[in-house]
Amino acid sequence: MMQMIYSDAAGGFAASREYLAIRLQAHEHLLARIEEVGSEFSHWDEARVQKFVAREIDRFVQLRRVPINTSEAQQIARDLLKEINGLGPLDDLMQDQDVEDILINGYQNVFISRRGVLHKQALAFSDDQHLLRIVQRVLAPLGRRLDESSPMVDARLPGGGRLNAVIPPLALDGPLVSIRKFRQEAWGMDDLVRMGSLDAAMSSLLHHAVRERCNILISGGTSSGKTSLLNAMAVFIPESERVVTIEDAAELSLHHPHVVRMESRPAGLDGQGTVSTRDLLRNSLRMRPDRIIVGEVRGAEVLEMLQAMNTGHDGSMATIHASSPRECLYRLEMLAGFAGFAGSELSLRRQMVSALDFIVQIGRLPNGKRRLLSITEVVGMVDDTVALQELYRHESQGGQVDSWHSLGVPPQTPKLAAWKAGNAARGMADGGGWPL
């Protein structure tokens, strides 16, 4: 059973066949010693396991008279410790706070995302079985399965993050593994402003929109920063309110004292026991929520979400995959159609207009930077079309300099009437107009 070449062992003798052969023999020796120790080994703490591995590798080198130096022996011990007690080659990447995504396209191709930009990683698993062993080790404590009868899995990681895996025969070129990591400490709105994701004026508008219970959809593509923005905006929810979050795979990390978290459940081994996001949303209405936050709208739950926003749960928020505010509305219509909406297209649009106040569009630029692209208000109906008014728009000069421009139109929702009046008064006092 060959092991992988870790990035910190790449190059020189550490990447040679001789090194791999020695490490294979050392691994076999270590497994034999673990069998001798028996079940007691599983109860050892990390420090004791580390000492055991180091001692056994030294013993192996001396007994076999292996021609390696102390540094190389220590490297073998570190590699085997990760293989036995951790996630093998994924250990270092999972610990690296700058790594956002780990994408494995078959055992030989590993890519990581840092600051929105993909980089090929200088490491590879030894074979597909090695990769699958590591994935199974991640899934084991989660009670999820990955085999020929269930060749796809989507699971939440205990330390935060999400794992998706697809194996043959669905994956043609070997196992496909995607790991999305999440920060232990979510970004705040001030952090996003400092990093240049939006400006202070937009932050102020979002602050008051959340505080005054506006219903908001955050729209964007994959890995555009929707969840991070939703986490940051949720900080503005008053502490006196009860917030219910509903997700397919729990990703939200809200800094709020009263959050009730729920997560959907896939079918069990017998195909039974599914609990959908729609089921959870229906049940949440009986849990006395002040606000409902849906991690991502992607199915039939869209109808319950719109109804909740229309029936006393103002201030609710959700994310959705769409490339523009108008496309966001089209996607809502499509999902409602798939959910079996029985009314007319016009009645659905009127319900959307009544439910939604703002659509916040976020995107990832070609250089990997995540930027708020626009804040758009849902203002009403014109004939049979939903009328949108863009309030702020992102512009980039040469792909390097970001700027946001107000369209000079204040928000029309009565929920922000007091804030708008205060802004207008301060603007006139300064000789200017909307916005400050």
TrEMBL record:
Source domain of life: Bacteria
Residues of the Bacterial type II secretion system protein E domain: 86-361
Annotated GO MF terms: ATP hydrolysis activity
Pfam families according to UniProt: T2SSE
Family classification: Belongs to the GSP E family.
Entries under PANTHER family matching the protein: TWITCHING MOTILITY PROTEIN PILT (PTHR30486), TYPE II_IV SECRETION SYSTEM ATPASE (PTHR30486:SF15)
Protein's name according to its UniProt entry: CpaF family protein
Organism: Comamonas terrigena
